[in-house]
Design goal:
It contains four helices and ten strands; from the N terminus they run αββαβαβββαββββ. It is of the alpha/beta class. α2 crosses α3. The strands form two sheets. It has a six-stranded mixed sheet. The protein has a four-stranded antiparallel sheet with strand order 1-2-10-9. β6, α4 and β7 form a beta-alpha-beta unit. The structure holds inosinic acid and magnesium ion. Inosinic acid binds next to β4, β6, α4 and β9.
Length: 190
């Protein structure tokens, strides 16, 4: 049994291959779940007596958002939109709205939810889009934040974890569309 565990660990530490790149284990599912639980508690405390609308950015946010919602103990509503700025492992700097939200959010408290904030271009574009809709308030939340890559001065209210400026996959995050279903997060090997 012990040998099986050691062999599994060695195999796991070697990393995984997605298309032409190797990724090594970086953040475990347990660590992610702890960070998400902590965020859900803090957000709930800030919205006591309110029904916030959590707006998620597809596709990357799905796993973070579903786990966050399971931990959020108050009333809330959800909506999604789709934006795209990345090609492969590089940001294009040009954020496209592929799908706008369908819900009327006039007069509502909004929390914008991202899987990861890198340059901040997506979050900024999203903030611009939502602030035109006459909402009551807007706050921002992200599971992962790369402070060294961030180029905007928009405040991020809720951050799950700070990570270095390196490309990661898993837990909703993809490389060329793949890797979103990995339960842990992996970092690109140099
Ligand atoms: P930003 O606009 O540069 O902040 O990038 C935000 C979006 O790019 C995220 O919502 C992700 O979809 C994608 N992205 C940024 N960094 C990574 C990464 O390390 N892995 C996978 N996707 C990323
Ligand atoms: Mg995203």
């Amino acid at each position: 049994m012990l040998i099986a565990t050691v062999l599994f660990k060695l195999y796991y530490m070697q990393g995984i291959q997605i298309i032409d790149k190797t990724f090594i284990p970086y953040i475990t599912n347990e660590e992610l779940e702890q960070a998400i639980k902590r965020l859900a508690t803090i957000v709930h405390n800030d919205y006591k007596g309110e029904i916030p609308v959590f707006i998620g950015v597809l596709n990357g946010v799905i796993i973070f958002m579903s786990d966050f919602l399971k931990q959020y103990k108050g009333d809330c509503e959800i909506s999604f939109l789709q934006m795209k700025s990345y090609e492969g492992t590089q940001t294009t700097g040009n954020v496209k709205t592929l799908m706008d939200i369908s819900m009327d959010i006039t007069g509502r408290h909004i929390v914008l939810m991202e899987d990861i904030v890198d340059t901040g271009n997506t979050l900024y574009a999203l903030h611009q889009l939502i602030s035109r809709k006459k909402v009551k308030s807007i706050r921002t939340a992200t599971l992962l934040y790369k402070p060294d890559a961030y180029k905007k001065d928009l405040n991020i209210d809720y951050i799950g974890m700070h990570i270095p400026d390196k490309f990661v996959v898993g837990f909703g995050l993809d490389y060329e569309g793949l890797g979103r279903n990995l339960p842990d997060i992996y970092q690109l090997k140099d």
